[in-house]
Predict the 3D structure of the following.
Amino acid sequence: MSHSGPLPLAQRAARVRFRRALALVAMTLVLPGSAQLVAGNRRVGRVAVWASIVLASATVATAITSYFWHELALWIATTPTVLLVLRLALLVLGLAWAALFVDAFRLGEPLTLGVGHRRTTLLVNCGLALTVAGALLFGSHVVNTQRGMIMALFTGTKESAAVDGRYNVLLIGADSGVTRWGMRTDSMTLASIDATTGRTVLIGLPRNMENFPFQHGSVLAKQFPHGYNCSTCELNSLSTYASDHPTLFKDAKYPGIDATIEGIEGITDLKVNYWAMIDLQGFRDLADAVGGVTINVRQPIAIGKTGDVVGWIQPGVQRLSGDKLLWYARSRATSDDYSRMARQKCVMSAMLHQLSPTTVLQHFDALATASKGVLETSIPPSDVDTFVTLAMKAKSQKVATLSLVPPLVDTMHPDIAKIRAAIARSLAGKPATGKHRSRPAQVTTQMTEGSYGSMQTGYTANDTTNLAAAC
């Protein structure tokens, strides 16, 4: 026969002690230091509580400010010193919070609890301590990875101010192979970016351009006072020339790039602020790291070299990664250099619009690991936030292109005055040829290995006020 009634005093006391122990753990989760303020070392409690309030307020204020002013978030995410402070703060916070959980368990007087209550309190305490500390320590790891990537990629030491309201960044694709890093410039694009709006014009320079001048006073102007006009003098040979004549650029860390910049400045009459170079084979790793890029493949694209085609990228809207994206950007087995340049611009446009901050975060570790080995730039860490901000603005803008190729430009005997006038029109938002070539159908229905147009009529993606529409 059973009956209900008030619990014995000992059982009631045990429940009170158990609830108190759990309450101290919960207090530590909600407001670190509050358990110590109530039942332990009040001095430690006051410090922890105030620190928690200050950190929570600062985090909320930063989040709200960043929502309305994205530049703050970008500055935090790209400034090595800030990232170092943030990393150390997360590390210390994680360890300190875990220590407060341990102390809260002690304040719960576990030896006075029953075996079942003691085990439950221990499991709850350890679970919360490991979860909170683990999350903060993982956050510290991510911040450190971000900082390491910034430090490894952005090795420049000098800031370069915008000229005439624009930043000009030379994008170089270097052919891969042993001892070739920085030696063979396979592709060259000068990205001219409006320093206020982010509007970008991609100026493509053919690697086979000849007979062009250097700006007065430059190193190579003294070597070639009548222009770069020898029998083997093509734009992409400047890096090799600089390597073969080390005394010309003896103080330069990258003489091949410096020589290439002198050539491009002589052709375009634009000051190059910074450069970024990627090994084209390493480009595969970057494509894989972000999960690929969606491309509208309009015609079969050959995989392999001329006379040695081993496969095809079939037509259709598809996500290309690794080898296929590289072959889409490089193939010329059934076309020419200029069709390839048009496709490369399409890849740039796709990456600009598809690589959102969310995508980067989802593939952050892989992207950081891949980029350290294949990408290098003269942009200093202090200017990274500027260019990330401009890139975000550029996503909402129409990207324009101007490739200095036929039929606009005779690459063997270029008309430099004509080139500079065309560049001026493009920078002003006008088509270089005087025709609005933003829609392929308005120009031609001909297509050459996936690029609208031909070498005779010109490729739309090489001269357009709206690159996305031309691709």
